[in-house]
Amino acid sequence: MGQRFLRRIRAASRRIRMARVIARGLQSRRHPILVQIVPTRRCNLACTYCNEFDKVSAPVPLDTMLARIDHLAALGTSMIDLSGGEPLLHPETEEIVRRIRSHGMLAGLLTNGYLLTRERIQKLNRAGLDRLQISIDNVTPDDVSHKSLKVLDQKLRWLAELAAFDVSINTVLGTGVGQNDDALVIAQRALSFGFGTSVGVIHDGSGQTAPLDSRQRELYRQLQGLGRSFYSHAHDRLFQENLVRGVANEWRCGAGARYLYVCEDGLAHWCSQQRGHPGIPLERYTVDDLDREYDTVKSCAPLCTVSCVHRVALLDAIRERPLETLERLSAADRAVGGQTPRTVKVLTRVFVTSPRRDLFRRLALRALR
Ligand code: SF4
Ligand code: SF4
């Protein structure tokens, strides 16, 4: 009972901090909303579609990692996710999480889950981890990927029992990954544990999509409707529909400004699929770099599948074109027979169309400070 109460308190605190992230993101364009940082390039698996791992790299020394986290905090970053490779191979992952939290930022971890034990989950609780995402590709391991439900199910049970942080399970659809219906089985298992779910589209070596077949598109639509959070790009159904059909989307990619990918060498890149742009050492990255990259047009944007950058871009679209963007989200929901979520309706009325919207915005920002 005591532990359940503690988990509820932590979940409520996370929701308030996430509301602050959204409020800050809507107020200003001059800070990164999300950074993914690599504490080690090494991975204990070898998925054949992956271009983000090796078998030899040493972990980044703790002092170096902490200095990078401090610099990201100085840039005003709201959330940092540890990525890889496999970040749990870093011997001091929990120290890094602790430093992220000490700056008031949200701390996340993207993992294949293999190294999770009951003890490791408790250590991550104590470090203050906010969210953990496990990617699961298939129901049983195959030649492409060993990230399978069969292998990871016990880890999911432990997480359901012990984790004080949010857990979400990401599945993927696309050529060569699992059997088509595996993604649905995995998402339903995740929901049975009370976890969130998300679905991605497998991409090529530069982050670009290829059209899904008709069964995969149907599955993608079903999966998008399951377990999506309030702040999720899955609400932009028109965008998602283009993505799975391989049709170009019109959007502004804020990579390099609102989202950064910091590799193990400490270089800041647009994203994991566009490394080398701009490829500037993080310790020299300034607000001027953020301003420049915000305005840089990315030619890879129309067919991009990098969903965390889409999610960040949604806030900028709402800040720059609130009515048009909220109407677009609602229209897409109505077009498939759905309802505009009540929260979106209320927020639109209070903060966008009300004659007293400036007052309401000021009050909300003050309350979330
Ligand atoms: S587990 Fe993740 S990082 Fe490791 S090879 Fe597979 S996709 Fe790449
Ligand atoms: S559009 Fe942005 S997120 Fe997508 S591949 Fe290009 S730089 Fe990366």
Task: Describe the protein in words.
The protein has 369 residues and is α/β, with parallel strands linked by helices. The chain folds into two domains: 2-320, TIM Barrel, CATH 3.20.20; 324-369, no CATH class. It is built from 13 helices and nine strands. A nine-stranded mixed sheet has the order 6-5-4-3-2-1-7-8-9, with helices on both faces. Strand 8 (267-269) and strand 9 form a beta hairpin. Helix 10 (307-320) packs across helix 11 (322-335). The longest helix has 26 residues, at 2-27. It is globular. The mean pLDDT is 89. The protein binds iron/sulfur cluster (2 copies). Residues 43, 45-47, 50, 52-53, 84-86, 112, 147 line the site of one iron/sulfur cluster (SF4).
Order of helices and strands: HEHEHEHEHEHEHHEEEHHHHH
Overall number of strands: 9
Look up the CATH topology of the largest domain: TIM Barrel
Number of helical segments? Answer: 13
- Domain tally: 2
Average pLDDT across residues? Answer: 89
CATH arch. level architecture of the largest domain: Alpha-Beta Barrel
Strand content: 5-15%
Amino-to-carboxy terminus distance: 32 Å
- Biggest pleated sheet: 9 strands, mixed
The CATH first-level class of the largest domain comes to: Alpha Beta
Shape: globular
Topology:
Layout: H1 2-27, E1 34-37, H2 62-74, E2 79-82, H3 93-102, E3 106-111, H4 118-127, E4 131-135, H5 149-162, E5 166-173, H6 182-192, E6 196-201, H7 214-224, H8 237-245, E7 259-262, E8 267-269, E9 278-281, H9 287-295, H10 307-320, H11 322-335, H12 342-353, H13 357-368
Parallel strand pairs: 1-2, 1-7, 2-3, 3-4, 4-5, 5-6
Antiparallel strand pairs: 7-8, 8-9
Helix pairs in contact: 1-10, 2-3, 3-4, 10-11, 11-12, 12-13
The structure holds iron/sulfur cluster (SF4) (2 copies).
